[in-house]
Amino acid sequence: xxxxxxxxxxxxxxxxxxxxxxxxxxxxxxxxxxxxxxxxxxxxxxxxxxxxxxxxxxxxxxxxxxxxxxxxxxxxxxxxxxxxxxxxxxxxxxxxxxxxxxxxxxxxxxxxxxxxxxxxxxxxxxxxxxxxxxxxxxxxxxxxxxxxxxxxxxxxxxxxxxxxxxxxxxxxxxxxxxxxxxxxxxxxxxxxxxxxxxxxxxxxxxxxxxxxxxxxxxxxxxxxxxxxxxxxxxxxxxxxxxxxxxxxxxxxxx
Length: 254
Prior knowledge:
Blueprint: H1 4-14, E1 38-44, E2 52-58, E3 63-70, E4 78-87, E5 92-97, E6 100-109, E7 112-115, E8 130-133, E9 141-146, E10 149-150, E11 161-165, E12 169-173, E13 178-186, E14 189-192, E15 196-197, H2 206-216, E16 221-225, E17 228-233, E18 236-243
Antiparallel strand pairs: 1-2, 1-8, 2-3, 3-4, 4-5, 5-6, 6-7, 7-8, 9-10, 9-11, 9-18, 11-12, 12-13, 13-14, 13-15, 16-17, 17-18
């Protein structure tokens, strides 16, 4: 059992699929109904792992980056790039590849893409497979870089994280203590209130906690880039996050 995106990966790896012809016609410049650039993410079923996180970044120049991350497997991410197009008549996004058959998605609404089969038709599955628009509050975020330096998972007692909740509330972890506060948005401007934290003694990671809280106090701007959350202050990068793992989906039989 494997999902269509995993089939796309296998097809590319084997280089054994028939290469489709890609035309750069009117559909390549059509607007899909959501703002560009846009990043969508979701979980694909996996036969021998809890799931595969698929992250699709669609750029305004009609190039794409499709990243497949295998949960709980110590293997590198699989990354594919190429041109994408949108057909207004069918509301379908098409990812083209020089290595195999194209991948299709149906634009269900401005926040949701539904995975289609290799011919652009609906999948015969028990439940639809979808990718959801990644936004500030679409999922929790785990810290991976602090002022340009990578943050190792072993540097703190638990992952350093933020969760932008509905209603302007923010919560998370400093790696030791829990934090709470509020936030406001104006375009890509992000303002965080003074944050309250618990006051547990940290067996490790006290330096990371202090640097993290200091950086949060300097945040002015945010952006989302290929499924990553970047926070800036004073024109400089402060913090970089990856989407925290979601609950794996059950395998879907085809």
